[in-house]
Amino acid sequence: MNKSEEFWDKASKKFDKTEERFEYIHKKARENTKKHIKDSHTVLDYGCGTGTVSCELSSQVKEIHGIDISAEMIRIATEKALVSKVENVSFEKADIFNNKYQNESFDVILAFNMLHTVPNPKNIIQRINDLLKHDGLFISITPCLRQKMSFFVNLQIQLVRILCKFGVIPIPIRRIKSTDIDALLAEGDFQAIESEEIYKGASSYFVVAKKIQKP
Questions:
Q1: What is the DSSP string of the chain?
Q2: 129 near 121, Cβ under 8 Å?
Q3: Which one of 66, 131, 179, 199 has the largest count of C-beta atoms within 10 Å of its C-beta?
Q4: pLDDT tens for residues 170-208?
Q5: pTM for the whole thing?
């Protein structure tokens, strides 16, 4: 187990509780997403965490495959689906670069609160583009830690940056703006079709982008 997996395994124990304070942002992102998914869609929930998004959206799509590098996150997500009697969702400990996922396999790929923590966002966006079907949709929400936030959240971010610097938190936490996400998507052959900056203590950027077909 690498340090990132170990970190997220430990975080899983209090993950849902710690995310409650940003529930307004999370709920708004889920509601926005529902406007773009269909009952014929096969969806990949990349970085699914404890499975909250997958379980809530499952009734509106054909099937959802949730993946996460944390075995504990996947265990909690699987239990959550069983308790909720959700049958069209599967959860697996896996990375998005797993060879089992074939190009043009998914109608929609979700990445909620992910892009500011991955080692190489450009590689991730390219992989997402490859996995999406013709005119497939990439839907994401990302904390924008270089934009508006409350004094309390700002203090927390400063603490996190210190912990990252000394290796206590073994993942990159990028301070980005919404325009950085726009540029990343454009470079990765995506066209944004809807976006919204959502604020509740901190700014998060919700965006729906369509895969651009290359000539």
A1: --HHHHHHHHHGGGHHHHHGGGHHHHHHHHHHHHTT--TT-EEEEET-TTSHHHHHHGGGSSEEEEEES-HHHHHHHHHHHHHHT--SEEEEE--TT-TTSPTT-EEEEEEES-TTTSS-HHHHHHHHHHHEEEEEEEEEEEE-TTS-B-HHHHHHHHHHHHHHHTTSS-S------HHHHHHHHHHTTEEEEEEEEEESSBEEEEEEEEEPPP-
A2: no
A3: 66
A4: 988 889 999 999 999 999 999 999 999 999 889 999 999
A5: 0.95
Confidence of residue 160 (pLDDT cuts 50, 70, 90): confident
Residue 192 is encoded by which pair of tokens? Answer: 């944004």
Structure tokens at 165: 């610097």
Yes or no: say if 104 and 74 are a contact pair by the CB < 8 Å rule: no
Query: Is domain 3-211 in CATH 2.30.29.30, yes or no?
Result: no
Tokens, residue 135 = 């005119």
